[in-house]
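Students often ask what a holo structure prediction actually looks like on paper. The answer is less mysterious than it sounds. You provide the chain, you provide the ligand, and the output is a string of discrete structure tokens encoding the 3D arrangement of the protein together with nicotinamide-adenine-dinucleotide.
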Amino acid sequence: MSEQVAIVGSGLVGSAWALVFARAGWRVRLYDQEASQLAAAAARIADNAGEMVRHELLDDAPSVLGRIESRARLEDAVEGVSYVQESVFENADVKRTFYRRMDAVVGSHTIVGSSSSGIPASVFTEGLACASRCLIAHPINPPYVIPLVEICPTPWTDPSVVDRVWSLMSDAGMTPVRVTREIDGFIANRLQAALLWEAFRLLEGGYASAQDIDRTISAGLGRRWAFIGPFETIDLNAPRGLADYAARLGPGFFEFVKQGEPAQPWSDDVIAKAHDECRSRVEESELPARQAWRDRRLMALAAHLNRARTEIGS
Ligand SMILES: NC(=O)c1ccc[n+]([C@@H]2O[C@H](COP(=O)([O-])OP(=O)(O)OC[C@H]3O[C@@H](n4cnc5c(N)ncnc54)[C@H](O)[C@@H]3O)[C@@H](O)[C@H]2O)c1
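The corresponding structure tokens follow.
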């Protein structure tokens, strides 16, 4: 079904969402409180669409770009749309203030998904007229090449809204997962935080360099994680599956996991150690080029996974 969607907050994530929805054939209106951000978003979207064409992830960039337009006023952006993807700053007060403003202008059937990375939607939607139509739809950046979207309702989200956003995201080529009840950080950032805490702990203890800890993921564990997750990984790593793996390796893993001390904030020293090592490999001035390199690698990976999916039909 063809939808009309509004993206509110046209920074890094909002502009990336525009490509997801326009690629699916929907008309997209972009809004931002800063006119300069809207202009920057249009340029970024055109650049990214060009890269996607080069990686065979998009056939017809002009048509996709032709479905995206900007609106200077929030009222005009959300008028008549079936879905709003909120992507303003990750700050509870900013989101609360914004949602109160939007509540006054959004249509009575419009659904609102928030890109929030970790703040549950109940923190900023309580008491609003549109509250039962609000939930989290959290992407991993950039969503036009990374398909995951975490859908997390509030206690007052209408269950039919969850189903509706699930099918809307699936239709847009995303891979939704359901967070069945609210938790800070949802699933993705909690898993990411657990890994980061252990990485900093190993670095601080002098067990390996930051580069070698990175390589342990990029040349090791991460290779599998591009297409299977932690449960399937261990299910496939013992002759009789997951329970067999748990019996063989669970007790040993528990021995070193329980040695972990309670979480502490990352110390200034360990942050400096990791930062200096990263800067010795990539100077600060080279970061944009390295980010562009990462995005090209992600596009090549997405193209490869798309082809593999077509070939093996999974
Ligand atoms: N950057 C990421 O990797 C990432 C990934 C997933 C989710 N997110 C989430 O997406 C949201 C946006 O993050 P981002 O990285 O795009 O930030 P950003 O700073 O790039 O963009 C935020 C945009 O929102 C606009 N804005 C702020 N308040 C507004 C308001 N009241 N009305 C209209 N526009 C407003 C700003 O002008 C800015 O253009 C956050 O909730 C963030 O946690 C970010």
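Residues 8-14, 32-34, 37, 87-90, 94, 98, 115-117, 138-139, 141 surround nicotinamide-adenine-dinucleotide (CB under 6 Å).
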